[in-house]
Write a structure and sequence with these properties.
Elements lengths: L1 E10 L3 H19 L1 E7 L4 H7 L5 H8 L3 E6 L9 H13 L2 E9 L17 E7 L9 E4 L7 E4 L5 H17 L3 E6 L5 H15 L6 E6 H10 L6 E4 L1 H14 L7 E6 L6 E5 L16 H13 L3 H16 L13 H13 L10 H15 L1
Parallel strand pairs: 1-2, 1-3, 3-12, 5-10, 8-9, 8-10
Antiparallel strand pairs: 4-5, 4-11, 6-7, 11-12
Pfam family, one: Iso_dh
GO molecular function: 3-isopropylmalate dehydrogenase activity
Keywords: Manganese, Metal-binding, NAD, Oxidoreductase
């Protein structure tokens, strides 16, 4: 039997609720597809920080590093000042684990309501590949003359050929197993030096993928095109900050933050990749059963695809999409069912092999890309 090791970071707020839901769905996938996971809970988040003063310690890093993948819920609490948990755990974890890519699909599933009038699933199926370790998120900066009218804040943005090339190469690989189109999103008319580097990397790496069609769009133009004509895009590659912003806009198209998934990918297998819904910890609804587990379940599907469990990944995606299609609303009390009830429905649909696979499943495509990289390595 195939076996994988999984570190589980439930986190804060609704994080534990949606993570439990995803693990229930994972149980169903294991039973149907003949693999297993050995799971370890790792206590990182607000409660642990407030009790111990710890963020991401060397010991916790070593524990995570012993696993094949990480399933993450959400981090954040009004009891901890903004930036402490985010920088001290999330950004630090991405850096230590060399999670070079933040991968976020923007897909509208059949039957899921969207606020964009006239938008159909056929028109909304793209993936954003976000460089995940640099840009404005290197967390380097300084302030002087604090507390005076002369206060100055400097926040650094860093771009290296090495990190940009990793993101761009992965984006080309993904485009080559999808519809063969890759768009660079940046702001080259203002961020001139960074833009030059990104453009040069695109041209250099593109020589290895002659069958992939490429184009360029400014980030502000992308924010205009995305709600109006998302069908223009297949795979989009962009820097850390731009990727963070445009994918939240993308989540609106697909039904809201509660149904959006993401993966933080280590590309060489030296450290585990981490998968998480893109919604926050939502402490205002924690414990009420109002959190939609779809984002966590779709993140689980990405995790399975990355581990090479392509059939299970596609089944979890299909089951989640089928249950989403039957909801009167994508989140909150108006969903008409609790977090636990929804996860049980998704798990039952995974167990039922009559649930049709989503056409052009990203989860299966991830498995294909992972297999190609393994063959090369």
């Amino acid at each position: 039997m195939r076996s994988h090791t999984l570190a589980v970071l439930p986190g804060d707020g609704v994080g534990p609720e949606v993570t439990r839901a995803a693990l229930t769905v994972l149980d169903a996938a294991e039973s149907r597809f003949g693999f297993d996971t050995r799971r370890t809970d790792v206590p990182l988040g607000a409660d642990h920080h407030l009790a111990t003063g710890e963020l991401l310690t060397d010991e916790a890093t070593a524990e995570l590093d012993r696993h094949d993948a990480i399933l993450f819920g959400a981090i954040g609490s009004p009891r901890v000042p903004p930036g402490i948990l985010e920088r001290g755990i999330i950004l630090e974890l991405r850096r230590r684990m060399e999670q070079a890519i933040n991968l976020r699909p923007v897909r509208l599933y059949e039957g899921v309501p969207t606020p964009i009038a006239g938008l159909t699933p056929e028109r909304c199926d793209l993936v954003v590949v976000r460089e995940n370790t640099e840009g404005a998120y290197v967390a380097q900066g300084s302030s002087v003359h604090v507390g005076t009218p002369a206060q100055v804040a400097v926040q650094e943005s860093v771009n290296t050929w090495y990190a940009v090339e990793r993101a761009v190469d992965f984006a080309y690989r993904l485009a080559s197993v999808r519809r063969g189109r890759l768009t660079l999103c940046h702001k080259t008319n203002v961020l001139v030096e960074a833009g030059k580097l990104w453009t040069a990397v695109m041209e250099s790496v593109g020589e290895r993928y002659p069958d992939v069609e490429t184009d360029y769009v400014h980030v502000d133009a992308l924010c205009m095109h995305l709600p109006v004509s998302p069908e223009r895009f297949d795979v989009v590659v962009t820097d850390n900050l731009f990727g963070d912003i445009v994918t939240d806009l993308g989540a609106v198209l697909q039904g809201g933050l509660g149904v959006a998934a993401s993966g933080n990918l280590n590309l060489d297998g030296a450290h585990p990749s981490m998968f998480e819904p893109i919604h926050g910890s939502a402490p205002d609804i924690a414990g009420r059963g109002w959190a939609n587990p779809a984002g966590a379940c779709l993140s689980l599907a990405m995790l399975l695809g990355h581990l090479g469990e392509g059939e299970a990944a596609a089944a979890v995606e299909a089951a989640t999409a089928a249950v989403l299609a039957g909801l009167p609303a994508p989140g909150g009390e108006a969903m008409g069912a609790s977090t636990q009830e929804l996860c049980e429905r998704i798990a039952a649909a995974v167990a039922d092999d009559a649930t049709p696979e989503v056409p052009g499943s990203l989860m299966a495509q991830l498995a294909a890309v992972a297999a190609g990289r393994a063959a090369e390595g």
